[in-house]
Design brief:
Layout: E1 13-19, H1 26-39, E2 43-48, H2 61-70, H3 74-86, E3 90-95, H4 98-104, E4 111-113, H5 121-129, E5 134-137, H6 143-155, E6 162-167, H7 175-178, H8 181-189, E7 194-199, H9 205-212, E8 217-221, H10 240-257, H11 266-275, E9 278-281, E10 296-299
Parallel strand pairs: 1-2, 1-8, 2-3, 4-5, 5-6, 6-7, 7-8
Antiparallel strand pairs: 9-10
Helix pairs in contact: 1-3, 1-10, 9-10
Length: 334
Amino acid sequence: MKSKNFYGLSDTFIVAEIGNNHEGNFHNAKKLIDKAAEAKVDAVKFQTFKTENFVSTSIDNERKKKLDKFQLTMKEFTMLSNYAKKKKLVFFSTPLDIESCNYLNKIQPIFKISSGDNNYTSLINKILKFKKPTIISTGMTNLKDLKKLDTLIKNKKFKAKLCFLHCVSSYPATFKELNLNSISFLKNKFPNYYIGYSDHSTGIEACINAAALGAKVIEKHFTLSHNFSNFRDHQLSANPIEMKEMVRKIRNIAIMKGKLDKKITKTEQKNQKALRRSLAANKTLNPGHIIKNCDLIMLRPANGFKDDDRKLVIGKKVNQIIKKNEIILRRKLN
């Protein structure tokens, strides 16, 4: 049976998606982990790749140059993993090639498959073999695609926790594109999966609304500053102040959502007497009067007969004067 939380932590597992916002600078990567810890997220996530195993140089040489600059070494990722642990954060990175996948298995407890690779069967099969909790972004897929992916996973008899993140692969995604109702749709179609949300919109509003809709994992891009450079991801990322506010609001949503039941709270129990009503006289009733329904009105507080108790009052003889608007008490009736 699926447990309540994806990774045994908060009700909503919040991931600061650092990705490549460090731009290849190890110091910046550590600083981003520091700021993520201050924001009280649950996890930090990077991207790990060997450029030559990721993009074709014959088609996009400019992109290769940029990615070469952004690339961290495996040793640096190991140090970042250890550093994140010291900061009490879960560390994981999205592998963008098989070689990176094999290395990351040594240093992280969770795997993430990007939207761009949710049809990269060889990579998916490799990750499934590690039998670790796995998050899959669903950008650029429809229901048919996800059912096919689900079948692949079932055929591998994968037993670890799985999460589909609703995602729109647009940078930035407009509010009109987000279609957050996909979260509820995926929860219905894939009840054995955790369903979450990976955000590419500007601001933090979409993530907060996704959490309110029941997303169990929230992934938001994270940067030191929107103006850090002209690299696209900084603009659609949350800065440290925004991330801290996002986490605070999502945690409050979990508190407000409470449990899947309907009970009277302790405060409501205390308020019932003042806020509910009792049967009262709508005119002065003298001793000897036989009470009729037309003599009654419902007034606060609830320290007498309930509305459902009219049969206990109607037909009774008054033995002490009951003034207009006075709550009718048992001792004044025969």
